[in-house]
């Protein structure tokens, strides 16, 4: 990962931490029902991590494979806070592929790859699936 990106991510993390500390430390006014704003406030940050869904064995279409690993990545891995709706595929060799997007047309998947993902993930590629089976191209 380029140094500039790492520094930007660290700066953003620091700002989020500062904002969360401020929200936690400032008293909140009481509401008419006796609860506080904080009681009713749900804070959502980009740090909420979501375990990826497994690729369905009935899925047909195109997805973009952006990371592969020989072992399952921990939920704390940066990709899970950076991207939503990640799908994971366990390969026959025991490795794992992490996928983004859900496209009926290959051209749409290619546009997503070229315009969004390729700069951050130079090894990313479009993968076709037919009824849960990977079709290599």
Brief account:
The chain has 137 residues and is an alpha+beta fold. Helices cover 32% and strands 23% of the residues.
Description of the molecule:
The protein is α+β, with helices and mostly antiparallel strands. It folds into 2 domains: about 5-40, no CATH class; about 55-135, Alpha-Beta Plaits. About 30% of the residues lie in helices and about 25% in strands. It has 4 helices and 6 strands, in the order ααββαββαββ. The chain has a 6-stranded mixed beta sheet with strand order 1-3-4-2-5-6, with helices on one face. The chain is globular and about 45 Å long.
Topology:
Layout: H1 3-25, H2 37-40, E1 53-54, E2 61-69, H3 78-82, E3 87-90, E4 96-103, H4 106-117, E5 125-130, E6 133-135
What descriptive keywords fit this protein?
2 domains, 137 residues, 32% helix, six-stranded mixed sheet, globular, Alpha-Beta Plaits
Tell me the strand percentage band.
15-25%
Average pLDDT, all residues: 78
Tally of extended strands? 6
Total domains, how many? 2
Largest sheet: 6 strands, mixed
N-to-C SSE string, H for helix and E for strand: HHEEHEEHEE
Terminal-residue CA separation: 28 Å
């Amino acid at each position: 990962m380029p140094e500039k990106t790492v520094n930007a991510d660290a700066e953003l993390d620091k700002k989020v931490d500062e904002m969360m500390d401020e929200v936690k430390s400032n008293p909140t006014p009481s509401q008419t029902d006796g609860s506080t704003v904080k009681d009713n406030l749900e804070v959502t940050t980009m740090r909420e991590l979501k375990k990826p869904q497994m690729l369905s064995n009935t899925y047909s279409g195109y997805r973009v494979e952006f990371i592969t690993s020989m072992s399952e990545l921990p939920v704390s891995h940066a990709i899970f806070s950076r991207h939503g709706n990640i799908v994971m595929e366990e390969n026959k060799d025991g490795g794992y592929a992490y996928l983004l997007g859900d496209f009926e047309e290959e051209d749409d998947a290619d546009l997503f790859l070229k315009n969004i993902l390729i700069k951050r993930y130079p090894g990313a590629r479009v993968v076709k699936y037919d009824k849960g089976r990977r079709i290599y191209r």
